[in-house]
TrEMBL record, chain A:
Official protein name in the record: Na(+) H(+) antiporter subunit F
Record Pfam families: MrpF_PhaF
Gene Ontology cellular component terms for the protein in this record: plasma membrane
Any GO molecular function: sodium:proton antiporter activity
Keywords recorded for this protein, A-Z: Antiport, Cell membrane, Ion transport, Membrane, Transmembrane, Transmembrane helix, Transport
TrEMBL record, chain B:
Name by which UniProt lists this protein: Na(+) H(+) antiporter subunit E
Coiled coil start-end: none
Compartments it resides in: Cell membrane
UniProt keyword Transmembrane helix, yes or no: yes
Gene source species: Sphingobium indicum BiD32
InterPro entries per UniProt: Cation_antiport_E (IPR002758)
Keyword Transmembrane: yes
One Pfam family this sequence matches: MNHE
Chief location: membrane
Membrane topology: Multi-pass membrane protein
Alphabetical UniProt keywords: Cell membrane, Membrane, Transmembrane, Transmembrane helix
From TrEMBL, chain C:
Keyword Transmembrane: yes
Transmembrane parts of this sequence: 12-34, 46-68, 74-95
InterPro entries: PhaG_MnhG_YufB
Protein name: Na(+) H(+) antiporter subunit G
UniProt keyword terms in alphabetical order: Membrane, Transmembrane, Transmembrane helix
UniProt xrefs under Pfam families: PhaG_MnhG_YufB
Coiled-coil stretches: none
GO molecular function list: sodium:proton antiporter activity
Length: 93, 160, 120
């Protein structure tokens, strides 16, 4: 019984996070300007990271944690590079 | 002590991160110690100015305030998103700031941005003004007073 | 696909509650990303997911793994530290980039520059 309720809760959380990713992706596609797209992409990274963490809780494997950490690191680097590109027109000056 | 460990906080952070990532085994603790001893030396080449931090109750109080404010403004911003009150207006405010220590300013920037509803945009070191964007701008003076009384005093206590 | 770790009742309640709470908060932030009208208003909602959303999911993960392995598992703290340090940087950079573009295009309702650029 406990396991069933917990499983339902985790699945519900995964669906909610999936919808959040869809919202962020909508913003990334729609724009209207480049900064909106980058913001959407950043939110997408974050929701994806949380989704991976819930998979880790569901299966009890720590490998998902490592994937989440990598998404956090690369998402940060990517967003910073894109924001810098918007400001100056090039990433490395 | 300073020659062996030029940046004790960085060394501690590296050690903690290594141990947390690899699991707690004697070999890895030894490796973590080695990393914590050697890697911070690279920072010596950058010639960074050392932060002087006073460890004390101010830090605990600051952490408490930040946590409380984050939870409160999460609820506030959540309500704005879901209910969309028609009278709400957002805007930029210019906030005069007396802090000069770079590390204190960094901490203030992280606090202001991490709190939903406020965003640190720009800082002018010469005129000592910071530009902040606020999502729910009811009373400009109230925001300035809040940041000055709550955070600036504590940060001045901790740094400098 | 429905599956769950084997946890005692108290831990199951905490994990389930925190996971759902974190997901709901992140979803509210993502909805805000769609509903807000201007870019500067849109920067604010994602911070919901970055602060409390991430915090609750990480707390659930810490509880789950600590109970399952019957020892404190704290490596999720790394993600928390990383997210709290990095997201303000990305948001600040993005807001500054947007401000820079708006100013150079002569958009009206953004504040002017402070004169000389003197920020860090």
């Amino acid at each position: 019984m406990t396991a069933l309720v917990l499983a339902l809760a985790i699945t519900a959380a995964q669906i909610l996070l999936g919808i959040a990713m869809a919202c962020a992706a909508y913003r990334a596609f729609r724009g209207p300007r480049a900064q909106d797209r980058i913001l959407g992409l950043d939110a997408l990274y974050l929701a994806g990271m949380l989704l991976l963490l819930t998979y880790g809780i569901q299966t009890g494997r720590t490998i998902f944690f490592e994937a989440a950490l990598i998404i956090a690191v690369l998402g940060f680097a990517g967003t910073v590079a894109l924001a810098k590109f918007l400001m100056r027109g090039e990433v490395i000056e | 002590m300073t020659r062996l460990l030029p940046f004790p906080l960085l060394s501690a952070a590296l050690f903690g991160m290594w141990v947390l990532l690899t699991g707690f085994s004697p070999g890895h603790v030894l490796l973590a110690g080695l990393v914590a001893l050697t890697i911070p030396r690279v920072m010596l080449l950058l010639k960074v100015e050392k932060p002087r931090v006073r460890i004390g109750w101010s830090m605990v109080r600051l952490a408490g305030f930040v946590l409380g404010d984050i939870i409160r403004s999460n609820v506030a911003v959540g309500r704005i998103i879901l209910c969309k009150p028609p009278a709400r207006r957002s805007g930029f405010i210019r906030l005069p700031i007396a802090l000069e220590n770079r590390y204190a300013l960094v901490v203030l920037a992280v606090i202001i941005t991490a709190t939903p509803g406020t965003l640190w945009v720009q800082h002018d070191a010469r005129r000592k003004i910071i530009l902040i964007h606020v999502l729910d701008l009811v009373d400009e003076e109230a925001w300035i007073a809040l940041i000055k009384n709550r955070y600036e005093k504590l940060l001045m206590d901790i740094f400098e | 696909m429905i599956q769950a770790p084997d946890l005692p009742l108290w831990a199951a309640i905490i994990v389930g509650l925190f996971v759902v709470l974190g997901a709901v908060i992140t979803l509210v932030g993502a909805i805000g990303l769609i509903r807000m009208e201007t870019f500067y208003e849109r920067v604010h909602p994602p911070t919901l997911g970055m602060t409390l959303g991430t915090g609750f999911v990480l707390l659930a993960s810490i509880t789950c793994f600590s109970v399952m392995q019957s020892r404190p598992v704290l490596h999720e703290v790394l993600i928390a530290v990383f997210v709290t340090i990095t997201t303000p940087i990305t948001l600040m950079l993005l807001a500054r980039a947007a401000l820079y573009r708006d100013r150079s295009e002569g958009v009206q309702d953004v504040p002017g520059d402070f004169g000389d650029e003197g920020d860090d």
